[in-house]
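thread: overnight batch results

M.L. [08:02]
morning all. the overnight job finished for the chain we discussed friday. pasting input first so we're all looking at the same thing
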Amino acid sequence: MPSLPVQLPPVKLKRSHNPLREVFFFLVAFVAMFSGAMLGLDVLL
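M.L. [08:03]
and the structure it wrote out:
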């Protein structure tokens, strides 16, 4: 795997498994992906 120009921060192995936070981040990522897809379709069509 080639080295990336941007170094990723080390992954914390000790993650707090907060279900509410997991759902919140999932919703944020889903809304961002969905709005990006809608914006792309709006630009294309």
